[in-house]
Amino acid sequence: MANKKSPAPGWPIVSGEYVVGNPESCVGVVTLGSHGLEQACIDAGAAIVGPCHTENLGIEKIIANYISNPNIRFMVLCGSEVQGHLTGQCLKALWENGIGDDGGIIGAKGAIPFLENVNKEAVERFRRQIVEVVDLIDCEDVNKITQAIKECISKDPGAIDEEPIVLELESGEAKEGGEEEGFEIEGIPKVVEPDLEYCDKLLEKLEYKVGLMTRDIELASGVFAKSTQGVIIGSAMAFVLVIIPVILKMLIG
């Protein structure tokens, strides 16, 4: 029988929109943007099952709850991909590549795939602990998903030979003594700190685009003004050229 360890007290340590099964199971399931798959996954033997809507806070919660339970060695990604956030792709990229010095998930294609509350050490522990990521992104077929869970269980290598790691997320979502801090929707923090660097970059792009638009308007106005001026001058010259012969004819004759 595979070796098992006790998860951190009060596991799962971070509250969220998930269902908990057997804490000694080697499988964690992320249903991405889908709901209604949880109970079937728990019945198949998963340790924890829940959605992940955001490529930053949502992923931080997954890391925190997984590395605080050394028994979880597989992660099954299933359910519909979250458009824009691409949390499934970001989770795969995190496992495959880790994060950079700026906290960005290397190779992630989501909108803002930056982990601000999880350091490299925690990410590397997550990557060591998870021996396989099963890619069933955009699959909601319960039979395929539960079969994948059972296959993972059949390959259970036992708990990672490291102690549980308890992360204290800055958003204050870590639980003390295993008690819930109240109702929360997964992926939506109680307090959101603005990403000033991202806002500055966005403002720079907006200023650049506004500058281009202003230049185009000025050029168009100049062309229009010159065209109007040309029409007036041309009309005046035509009038002069027509009226001069008439005047001369009247004077001569």
UniProtKB/TrEMBL annotation:
It is a single-pass membrane protein. 5-hydroxybenzimidazolylcob(I)amide binds at residue 85. Residues 187-248 form the Tetrahydromethanopterin S-methyltransferase F subunit domain. Its cofactor is 5-hydroxybenzimidazolylcob(I)amide. Coiled coil: none annotated. The keyword DNA-binding does not apply. It is an enzyme of class 7 (translocase). One of its GO terms (molecular function) is tetrahydromethanopterin S-methyltransferase activity. It is found in: Cell membrane. Its EC number is 7.2.1.4. Signal peptide: none annotated. One of its GO terms (biological process) is one-carbon metabolic process. The complex is composed of 8 subunits; MtrA, MtrB, MtrC, MtrD, MtrE, MtrF, MtrG and MtrH. This is Tetrahydromethanopterin S-methyltransferase subunit A. The gene is mtrA. Its main location: membrane. It comes from Methanocaldococcus fervens (strain DSM 4213 / JCM 15782 / AG86). InterPro entries: MeTrfase_F_su, MeTrfase_MtrA/MtxA, MtrA. Pathway: One-carbon metabolism; methanogenesis from CO(2); methyl-coenzyme M from 5,10-methylene-5,6,7,8-tetrahydromethanopterin: step 2/2. The chain crosses the membrane at residues 231-252. Part of a complex that catalyzes the formation of methyl-coenzyme M and tetrahydromethanopterin from coenzyme M and methyl-tetrahydromethanopterin. This is an energy-conserving, sodium-ion translocating step. Keywords: Cell membrane, Cobalt, Membrane, Methanogenesis, Methyltransferase, One-carbon metabolism, Transferase, Translocase, Transmembrane, Transmembrane helix. The keyword Cell membrane applies. Binds 1 5-hydroxybenzimidazolylcobamide group. One of its GO terms (cellular component) is plasma membrane.
